[in-house]
Amino acid sequence: MDLLELLRNLLFDYTLRTVALGAAVLGIVSGGLGSYAVLRKQSLLGDAISHAALPGIAIAFLLTGSKAPLVLILGAVIAGWLGTLGVMSIVNSTRVKDDSALGLVLAVFFGFGLVLLTFIQKMPNAAQAGLDKFLFGQAATLLERDVITMAAIGTLALLTMLMFWKEFKLLSFDPEFGASLGFPMQALDILLITLLVVAIVLGLQTVGVVLMSAMVVAPAAAARQWTDRLGIMVGLAALFGALAGVSGAVISSSTARLPTGPTIVLCISAIVLVSMVLAPNRGLIWHWVRRQRNRWRLRVEAVLGDMALLAAQHDDPGHGHSLAALRAMSQGRGGVARSLEKLERRGWVRRVSPDEWALTPNGWAAAERLLEQHEETSV
Amino acid sequence: MSNEAKAIEVTDLTVAYRERPVLWDVDLDVPAGVLMAVVGPNGAGKTTLIKAILGLVRPAAGQILIYGQPYVDQRRLVGYVPQRGSVDWDFPTNVLDVVMMGRYGTLGWVRRPGQAERMMAMEALEKVGMRPFADRQISQLSGGQQQRVFLARALVQDAHVYFMDEPFQGVDATTERAIVTLLQELRTTGKTVVVVHHDLQTVPEYFDWVTLLNVRRVASGPVGEVFTEQNLRLAYGGRVAFLSRDSQPVPGPEQGVRTPA
C-alpha cells in the first residue's frame, strides 16, 4: 500500500477514518491530562482507574440494557471515580500505603467487573454481545457517533483543564502553598482526577481497560524528555498521543489481524523509547556524551596537575618527563597518553622526545589557574 | 488603634496526629513588627504550629487571629515560605513562573498572571539577587537559590505577616546573609516575620523575638528576656550541652554550631 492510497483511505474509508479519528481524540485527551498524573507521581492511578471502570460498564448495561456510548461512559466514569475515592479513603483512614491501596482497588474492581462480564455473556439475550471488547479494546467497533461523543466530552475535559491551568499548576507543584493562598486544593484535586477519569474512560472502547494506562503515562513521559515547560509538555504529550493513535490505527488497518489497541500502545512505546534515548539534556545519549566529556576533562586536568608537580621539582622547567612516570602518578585513571595529546593540541605541553613530555609556559599558567579555581570552589 | 493590634494571636491551640498530641494548649501573642524565631527540638511541633496557623492542618482545639480577625478573613495579609524540600524541583517550570505563584491568591480564580505580575516577580527576584536567573529551569538551581526563589515568591504576596519554615536549612553562607538582610528589611518596613529556626547560636544575632516550643509553649517574648539557658534547658531537656556557650557573645554564622536537621 503506498502512501497516497493510505492517505486516501484515511480520508474516505469510513472504518479507518472513524478509528483513526477516535484514536487521535483519545490520544490527545489522555496525553494532555496524563501529564498531570505523571507530574504528580500518580501514574499508577491511571491503571487503577481504567481497571475500576470495568464493573461500571457492566452495571450500566445491566441497569439500562443499552449499549449507547454515553450510557456506558457514564457508568465507567462513576465506577472509575468510586475506585479513586476508594484509594484516597484507604490511604487517608488506614495505615495502608498508596501503592497497596491502588493494587487493592484495581484487583477488587477488575475482578468484580470480570464476574459481571461473564454473567452478562451467559444471559439469554442477543443484545449482550460485545461488552468484552472493553477488555482489550476493539477499535473496529467504533461508530461515528461514538467518536462524536468522545470528541465532545474530550473537548469539555480539555477546556476545563485550560480554564484552571494556573490552579492545576499550583496543585501539582506546591499544594500546601496553594492551600495557604486560600484555594480549595482538595476540591481541585478531585476535579483534576475526575478529568483524568473522563480521559481514561474515553479510550476504553478503543484500547481497553488493560492497556489504557499506557496512554495516560507514556505520552507524558515521552513529552517530559523534550521540554522543561509545563505548557509545552502538555501540548507535546497530546501530540504524541494523537500521533500514536493515528499511526496505530493505520498500521493495524493495513495488516490483517493486528489489533488496534495494542498496536497504538506499541506506537506510543516506540515514541517513549526514542524520547528516552535521543532527547537533548534528558536523553540517554546526551547523558553519556556529557559524562564522557566530563571524564576526559578531569583526566586532562589531572595530567596537567601532575606535569606541574613534576615541573616544580626541577630547576629547568623545560625538562621532559616520561610517560611512565605520569602513568604511575595517574594511579590507574587511564587515558594518560591521550590526555597528553589533547594538552599538546592546546599548546600546554610539548613532546621533547618520543617518550618524554614537558610543560610549556602556557601550560604552567593554565595549571596555576586550575589550582586557583579548585581553591575557590573548596572554600 | 490598629497599630497596637497583635499581629498573631494564638489561643489554646492543640493539634494531634492520630492519638499523639503534637501541639498542646499553645498560647502565643506576637506583636506587629517583630522578627521572631521559633525554636525547639525535633518533633517539637514547630512546623505544625505554622501549618495550624495557616489552616493547613486542622487543630483539635484553639483559636487563631491575625490582626484581630480569623485567618480566613485575613489571608491576603499572610505570606508563606514552605520548606524547600516540600516540592519537586524537577517540575517543568522556570524561576519567574514559580515567583508569580505568589500572586495567584490575589488574582483569584481562572485569571492568569500578566505584565503587572511579571514586573512584581522581577522586582522580588532583584531583591533576593536572583534576577539573572528569571528564565532558569528550577531543577538547575542550587539549594540556596531555591530558597531565594521561595522567598521571592513570598515577597510578591506583599503580606504583612510572613511565616517561613526553615529558610536557613542547608543554604550556603552567602544565601544565609542575603536572607538575614532581607528579613531585617521586612521588619523595618513594619512586617512581622515568624521563622522556624534550627541554629540556636544565631538566634540573638538575627532575631529580636523568640518562641521556645516543645509540644507546649516553653517561653515566648523578646530574645533578651526569654532566650535564657534555663528556658532552653526546659525546651530541649538535657540534650543541649553546648548551650552554656550561649550566655557569652554569639559567634558569627560562619562558625556557628548547628543542631542536626
Architecture overview:
The complex is a heterodimer of chains A (379) and B (261). Chain A is mainly alpha-helical and 379 residues long. Chain A folds into two domains: 259 residues, ABC transporter involved in vitamin B12 uptake, BtuC (Orthogonal Bundle), CATH 1.10.3470.10; 93 residues, Arc Repressor Mutant, subunit A. Chain A has 17 helices and three strands. A three-stranded antiparallel sheet of chain A has the order 1-3-2. In chain A, β2 and β3 form a beta hairpin. In chain A, α3 runs parallel beside α5 and α4 crosses α10. Helices cover 29% and strands 25% of the residues of chain B. Chain B is built from nine helices and ten strands. Chain B has a six-stranded mixed sheet, sandwiched between helices. Chain B has a four-stranded antiparallel sheet with strand order 2-1-4-5, covered by helices on one side. In chain B, α4 crosses α5 and α5 runs parallel beside α6. The C terminus of chain B is likely disordered. Classes of the chains: A mainly alpha (379), B alpha/beta (261). At the A-B interface, α8, α9 and α12 of A face α3 of B.
User: How many E-type strands of chain A?
Assistant: 3
CATH fold type of the largest domain in chain A: ABC transporter involved in vitamin B12 uptake, BtuC
Care to count the β-strands of chain B? 10
Categorize the overall geometry of chain B.
Answer: globular
Q: Tell me about the biggest sheet of chain A?
A: 3 strands, antiparallel
Q: If you average the pLDDT of chain B, what whole number results? A: 86
| Order of neighbouring strands in the sheet with most strands of chain A | 1-3-2
DSSP helix fraction of chain B: 25-40%
How much helicity do the residues of chain A have?
over 70%
